[in-house]
Amino acid sequence: MNIKPIKNEKDYEDALNLIDKLMDAKPNTDEMDELEVLTTLVEAYEEQHYRIDAPDPIEAIKFRMEQEGLKQKDLVSIVGSKSRVSEVLNRKRKLTIEMIRNLHKQLHIPVESLFLDYKINSA
Fold this sequence. Notes:
The chain is mainly alpha-helical and about 120 residues long. It has seven helices and no strands. It has two domains: about 10-50; about 55-115, Orthogonal Bundle (434 Repressor (Amino-terminal Domain)), CATH 1.10.260.
């Protein structure tokens, strides 16, 4: 096993190619050990260089609505009135703690996504 740190894109590509070759490694073999170490290195490199930020709360809500095939009217029981749902989704009103609780409980949106700060449109 000749594994080295991933310091640049070439090292990263080389590691991915080697992982691809090792994907069929049998358990409890040197190849499997090498695969596990390489995977850990690639994950660390990706976390540092390809980090994907969590969506802001409104995008998280819209994403879940799309996943579940929900319309704005379906959020009335969760957020409040039709106008309140519209204001929230159009970024004219911030989410309240009660709305966040309801969205998490009923739509299973992670609380950490719902509590992120976001800008409202003040027009």
